[in-house]
């Protein structure tokens, strides 16, 4: 007698979203968290402290570990920070993401978004994490470490090269179904991904 087919896997419940500055990580994370009814962790708020100082790494790791432990039914984490995460949240690691979502939008679109966002934050003096603000005087700095617009421009090909290499080395699957890395190359692909997660549950 043939065995019953295995049930179709549901949408991923633990997602990490990465991409260059201005790609739309935070917006996507909020949309996904709302759709799945799971909490959202912004890694910038974890690794930055007041005065644009780095938070103690041990403290940051403890915050992430506690967040994951407190939400076993699912979560969304967004932000790059791979060098400081030390493997945390990656697919295939203990308590890691089911899927790593890579926002790979065209460079021109990322730059339009990051310039628009940077001007708005500077003019409105938007308070970010722990009272930090982006400073208009940094707009003219050439150093990408001090100028978020330059950072987005310089990092776009770097992030893309790194992620493409990672995709080539990581043809693993998540729960035996979906690819562990999902590449979203356009706003339409982003919308389709969110829609594919199903309707928001009340």
Automatic annotation (TrEMBL):
Question: Entry's InterPro entries?
Answer: Cytidylate_Kinase-2, P-loop_NTPase
Region forming the signal peptide: none
What is this protein called in UniProt? Adenylate kinase
């Amino acid at each position: 007698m043939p065995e019953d087919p295995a049930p179709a896997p549901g949408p991923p419940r633990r997602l990490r979203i990465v991409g260059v500055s201005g790609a739309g990580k935070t917006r996507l994370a909020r949309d996904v968290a709302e759709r799945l009814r799971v909490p959202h962790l912004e890694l910038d708020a974890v690794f930055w402290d007041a005065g644009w100082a780095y938070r103690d790494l041990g403290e940051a790791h403890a915050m992430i570990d506690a967040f994951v432990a407190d939400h076993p039914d699912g979560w969304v984490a967004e932000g790059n920070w791979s060098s400081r995460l030390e493997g945390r949240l990656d697919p295939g690691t203990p308590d890691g993401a089911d899927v790593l979502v890579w926002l790979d939008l065209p460079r021109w679109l990322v730059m339009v978004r990051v310039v628009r966002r940077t001007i708005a934050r500077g003019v409105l003096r938007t308070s970010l994490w722990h009272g930090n603000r982006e400073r208009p005087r940094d707009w003219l700095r050439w150093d990408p470490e001090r100028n978020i617009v330059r950072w987005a421009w310089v990092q776009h090909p770097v992030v893309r090269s790194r992620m493409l290499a990672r995709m080539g080395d990581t043809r693993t699957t998540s729960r035996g179904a979906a690819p562990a890395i999902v590449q979203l190359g356009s706003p339409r692909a982003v919308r389709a991904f969110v829609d594919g997660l199903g309707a928001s549950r009340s």
